[in-house]
Amino acid sequence: MVADLNSNPEILLKKRKNADRKRIEKQEAARQRQEEARRKRNQKKERFVRAETLVSNHRTAEIEKLRIQHLVKNEKITKQISAAKEIEGDFPAKLLFIIRVPPHKKGIKIPSKSQKVLSLLRLTKANTGVFIKLTPTVLPLLKLIHPYVVCGKPSLASVRQLFQKRASINVRDEETQAVKVTKLNNNAVVEEELGELGFICIEDLIHEVIAMGDNFKQVTFWLNPFKLNYPISGYGPLAKLQKLEYASENERKISIAGNTPLTEINIDKFIEGQN
């Protein structure tokens, strides 16, 4: 074996040596990153929290629980959903684009009912959005998550802009069977995956979403939630000041009344600012 190695050209031996060295360096770098992440997690757990912050978070959580109780008591959500299925055919459906936003109060703990609805809509992260069809069944659920989302009726231009810049899908690798996120910019992928439903290009998907066709649910769930940009990015002093000013200008007042209507915003302007 030693003779075979010595008989190789010097260049191949150097390549092998460099490959081994790089592999060891990568392993060491990965180990250091894991240790650094573990150290930061421990520091976060041991971080000092003021008593005023704990009291404020507790009060905010109690108010949010009270809001949910009022909604459930006033609208009787479970009964309303079952009754809504009977009148859903007479209710004019409406297209909405819902965007998850940071909580209106810092440190708030989202109740389990609202968390389940957010998970059902796949809005698990801030600044992600999905298209939904507003029906009597969906309306009471949107009221549950009203403090954590903004919604509105998008225009055709906004829908097309979202598809062109933010549309993505999950693709499974045939060799490794790993799922990776891929940008949707190829009509062949649409025809391959949704050709049985009559879609051959991205423009067909846009039309299906706008028209809220028969395959609206299949199309929207095939797409990943649209990831938008943060309104202000950065961690420096200027960025912190801009974030405070933005939060002050866009402060939302959340009512705990059970009969509060669903508030819609100019979603086109919101998308334009964060797309």
Automatic annotation (TrEMBL):
One Pfam match: Ribosomal_L30
Example of a GO cellular component annotation carried by this entry: nucleolus
Compositionally skewed regions (Basic and acidic residues) per UniProt: 21-38
Chief place where the protein resides: nucleus
Location in the cell: Nucleus, Nucleolus
One of the record's GO molecular function terms: rRNA primary transcript binding
CDD domains in the cross-refs: Ribosomal_L7_archeal_euk
GO biological process: exonucleolytic trimming to generate mature 5'-end of 5.8S rRNA from tricistronic rRNA transcript (SSU-rRNA, 5.8S rRNA, LSU-rRNA); maturation of LSU-rRNA from tricistronic rRNA transcript (SSU-rRNA, 5.8S rRNA, LSU-rRNA)
Record key words, sorted: Nucleus, Ribosome biogenesis, RNA-binding
Ranges of residues in domain Large ribosomal subunit protein uL30-like ferredoxin-like fold: 96-149
Region (Disordered): 1-44
Keyword Nucleus: yes
Function statement: Involved in the biogenesis of the 60S ribosomal subunit. May act as a specificity factor that binds precursor rRNAs and tethers the enzymes that carry out the early 5' to 3' exonucleolytic reactions that generate the mature rRNAs.
Family: Belongs to the universal ribosomal protein uL30 family.
Protein name, entry field: Ribosome biogenesis protein RLP7
Phylogenetic placement of the source organism: Eukaryota, Fungi, Dikarya, Ascomycota, Saccharomycotina
